[in-house]
């Protein structure tokens, strides 16, 4: 966790919002709610914000004898990566390199098809987690005429006309009045 927090702060400008732990359960709570061994312990749960107005990420550090300390390969079932938007892909890659982070190849620029306008490059965190920088300052072709508009970094998105909040804060789909809990 210390290595991840240092990386996120130094390379991505993260700020710790809060930290709690250790968290233990005497029953089957960990297995039932988090899908881990019932006797696993969350040594540290840290909430960070990436950049001044960026997303909040919740980081868990588990302790258990069966814990694999290596992330799964991105191609494995359960493998994943996290992408961060940058306005300038080349400046983003240069910033990674200045921090000693190795990009997996050079930025790829898509010029045709539904992804036209997208530039991306993957990179690895020091502990083996895969990340990606993405950039599309002029937009992505497939998003051009969508209604409602697809959210893009720096844009303000209003609630679609067919969605509104009920008095209890739940979202109502006015097409069928189905209520859902907010995320």
Describe this structure in words.
With 183 residues, the protein is α+β, with helices and mostly antiparallel strands. It has 2 domains: 1-63, no CATH class; 80-157, 2,3-Dihydroxybiphenyl 1,2-Dioxygenase, domain 1 (Roll). The protein is 15% helix and 31% strand. The chain is built from 3 helices and 10 strands; from the N terminus they run H-E-H-E-E-E-H-E-E-E-E-E-E. A 4-stranded mixed β-sheet has the order 4-7-6-5, with helices on one face. 9% of the residues are buried. Mean pLDDT is 85; it is low at 171-183.
Overall shape: it is globular
**Span of the ends, CA to CA:** 26 Å
Sketch the topology as an H/E string, one letter per element: HEHEEEHEEEEEE
Give helix % range: 10-25%
Report the sheet with the most strands, covering strand number, pairing sense and barrel closure.
4 strands, mixed
Architecture of the largest domain, according to CATH?
Answer: Roll
What's the number of helices?
Answer: 3
CATH superfamily (homologous) name of the largest domain: 2,3-Dihydroxybiphenyl 1,2-Dioxygenase, domain 1
CATH class of the largest domain reads Alpha Beta
CATH topology term of the largest domain: 2,3-Dihydroxybiphenyl 1,2-Dioxygenase, domain 1
Strand order in the sheet with the most strands: 4-7-6-5
Brief rundown of the structure:
The protein has three helices and ten strands; from the N terminus they run H-E-H-E-E-E-H-E-E-E-E-E-E. The chain has 183 residues and is of the alpha+beta class. It has two domains: 63 residues, no CATH class; 78 residues, 2,3-Dihydroxybiphenyl 1,2-Dioxygenase, domain 1 (Roll), CATH 3.10.180.10.
